[in-house]
Fold these 2 entries.
Entry 1:
Amino acid sequence: MGKLLNKASLTGIGAAIGAAFAVQPAAAQTTPVVSDDGQGSAIVVPYYTVNDGWQTLVNLTNTSENSIVVKFRLHESRNSRDVLDFNIALSPFDVWTATIQQSANGRPELITTDRSCTIPISVRNSGAEASELAYSGTFSDHTGTDGDVVRTREGYIKILVMGETAGSGRAPASVAANFPGDIAYDAEHVNGEPRNCSRVNSSFSARTADFDTTAGITAVVSGLDDAGVATTFPPTDDGTDVQTGSGSPLARLGSVDGSGNNESAVGYGAIATGNPLKANVSLVNQSTGRAAGVTSLHIENYGLGQNFVTAQEFPWFLEPTIASSNALWTIDGVNALITGISATQVKNEWSSNANTGAVSEWIVNFPTKRFEDDVDEDNIQAACSAWRNDNSGAGVPDGTGITQAANDFGDNDTGGVCAPELFGSGTFQDGNNGIAPIVVNYDIYDREEGGVTVELDGPVVSPAPPPEVTIDNLPYEVNVVKIGRDVSGATSVLGSPVSRSVETNELASNANSGWMIATFDGDSTNAPGSSSDAVPVISGIYKQRDFGDAALNFGQYLDAAYTRGN
């Protein structure tokens, strides 16, 4: 997949990426890049929540003239396990909308009135409720949260293009009425309703019971080819139209036959458009009158030239991931993402004033942490496991043939198959404590150019630097951080039950607003913020004013600034 390079003029979270990363000419952009136009083929939404009356609203737009199928996935915040997973078939210029809220059972519940086809179709017709299965029972990663639905209520969203079809697909041939047309054709809207979502849905069923073989695909439909000759659809597959670990669904089959004479495209093919998707996501709390739009990371050229379509059945629906590269069930692409969004520091404002109702909380998301710190090699729900890194070859996920010692899962510095060790030596399962902490140093400033009196080793003359506070307090994949005076005992305004706190009480000015630098300190042998301490991160701040009146209250979300290297 190559390095995740960044363009010269970036917006959103890419705005702070410096000249350390190369710039490609527009015509040569075939490797993933952080998008500068707010569109991409992969999207990371840094935060969702359904706690304390919050809803997360999603608008997803296919800005291209082609049909695409996308993976929509909720990851819980602690260890990034999948808690909701389905596909959406988007026709050219289609928009899909949904609301995520807390269900009567206490889990996130996605509801939609949109008519675009979803896989499974039940998501469109009756919504979908998140599940704690991926971190419970057989798949448990922490005894204390085994089966706990609370863990599903906040996290982040990943949206990935899986496959693409030119235009709106093709109708069935007139002489082959028993053959379906392209799946994209069935998904296209006619007078506001897709032609046949049921057929789209069934096309994502697995056609093989084997997880690691391309043989033995059986015919599922009989009919006539374009010449009127009786045949089967599709013929027994020779392995050229499927990829190991896909489940061989009809949705990824390239053609009815392989002769080259009467071919008729059926499923989705390789991703051909580098930036078809635009996501707009908002956090809304109707009861308190607060809302904020959340800026998402859009990655252009993810999966370009690859077909990532899989069956929407376990375990095939666990793919693709944002780390997919040239095959399913690999994480070869994770290094590209790490390179593109790594930073040694995150910088943003803070505000905490009881007199004005001002409160702020940072969102700090490490979107690749799961590929290093969740390293239970025998657990298929783990991001880095034998299933994604089998020694027999890329995309051969038989779940055997790998040992922790042989592949250095515990310490990836020596070139193991997991992501490089960037977050320290801890793992989420270490001591069954349910955390994988990251050491962070916080430099806290007020708004008056550092003109505050601070007691360090003794009295100092103003102006003086602010105090440096070292707190080992970012233990999760997605972290909510409260910042201000006496916030340790305060309830998170985003409703996070596991929010962290950074106190500003030591500021001698008693300031109620300012800014802060969070410096990562992953390698104790170097000074904090050295290049070896850089970690892949996206971050923003949620700010609100609470006037005690829902008609007057408001909120906003603002991106962070970054130091991308020394």
Note: The chain has a mean pLDDT of 77.
Entry 2:
Amino acid sequence: MKKLIYTSLFIFLFLSSKISAQYQPKNISTEDLKKANLWVDKTYSSLSQDEKLGQLFIVALYTNKGENEISTVRNIVVNDKIGGLILMQDDASREINLVNEFQQKSKVPLMIGMDAEWGVFQRIATAHKYPWAMTLGAIQDKNLIYQMSAKIAEDCHRMGINWDFAPVVDVNTNPSNPIIGNRSFGSEVNNVISSALSYSNGLQDNNILAAIKHFPGHGDTNTDSHLDLPVVSHDLERLNTIELAPFKALMDKGIGGVMIAHLYVPALESGKGIPASISKNIVTGLLKEKFGYKGLIITDALNMGAVANKYNPGELDAMAFKAGNDIMLFSQGVASGKKLIQKAIDNGEISQSRVEESVKKILLTKYFLGLDTYTPKNPENINSDLNNDSHKVLVQNLYSNALTLLKDEKKLLPLNNKQVYYVSLEEAPYQTFADQLGSNVIIKKANEINTIPKHSTVIVGLHKDNSTAYKPYKISDSSKKVLKDLAKKQNIILNVFGSAYALKDIDISKISTVLVSYENNDDSMRATADALNGKTKIWGRLPVLVNDKLKAGMGIDLDSITAK
């Protein structure tokens, strides 16, 4: 099949045509479009009503919850004839074998999705981790984001995945956001748009569907929607300027899917406490009719507490479909959901043409993703294929380009092989960074800082836990005290191996040099050490508003030694 991209083209249905944003081959001919639609019409006609309704559902496949869980999914695939799966934790080889089996059992090949925002590592621990979106937001050359998502697409193909539920386009204006945070490209709308477009194109140019999320905008929330229903209380002017702006800008860029959030937005939905994901005003009225979006519309996971705690399985699915969603993700009640949707059709609450619209949209997308047929994947060597030197080189380059130098008043960088001291603070590992810095570094513990000679150059590393993208960052009072004491006598290079939000309540006025590395892992630490030693250029920009003094867009360029 020709290389595919997602474009806004005219689909010719026999002699008539309609504007569509379905996923299509580049420069597709009228004849090819006819073949695609003939396959869709033929397949749709061959399905029973029960099979048609099954296409609307995606359920979760875990391999770390035992054989009973897998058997349950197997029965749903066979009996409820669902449209797809979302792969969860944790064994790649086992997942490939099961996907091969389930595809063989399915009359229409399954759409296989995954939350792979920072690569399949998000679900497969043996894979290589790519940077979080916040890190990517600091990168000025957005083509590097494209290269990363193209590599993620390669990994997805290797796993048999067709749809990466990414990127997040929420504008993270709340530093304490408990669910978005590092998953956002930042607090500036234009940076979010350009970063997300590069990410989406890297996927879709390589035949993996993207999904921008979480509509209508999850960037200013205080509640984790996995647990309860967040409220976004901004007025329409603010929503249009910030929360909705990336979605509006990307609507006509051919991005394959939009994921609907479990949020209550009173300015968009008059019904008290109604989540966006089941709001007809938001899904149909705003996204489909006002914004004119014609791609696949999918709910956020229906097992999340924001909705699962308030509605019964099945009932929730039917409400989501009535609202205008094409696909119910992570359904907890496929059989009952199908019955309730059919009951609504019989009662005239939902038209059969609405079912036809969604199912044909799903089928056409599957066709252009190559899912008119299915070729089994080989699980052999999967772990090494998902984690090798090609990943390492790319990822370290991304971290290198994200590094953001906020100040360097005493021109302490690059180190130029001079002797420096290193003090590690906070809870996470640091040894890779210390080793990569070289032999001129003397490591001191926090309780040994008084042994450091006055006026020395001291690197202070704030090494934050890197195990989750969700956790808001806060530096301990004890670390702040050590930093303050050091700044009285020493020349400090403060290196934040964590979100820039870590600097929110730290006084850096007496600190010469501040560098943000965004994450604490081996790739980030190696890239940072190389930059401090002058091997690579530093030219990232702060992607978020941290406080009144540290604003989005800040950053200083520092050439590598070889460039000088």
Note: DSSP finds 19 helices and 18 strands in the chain.
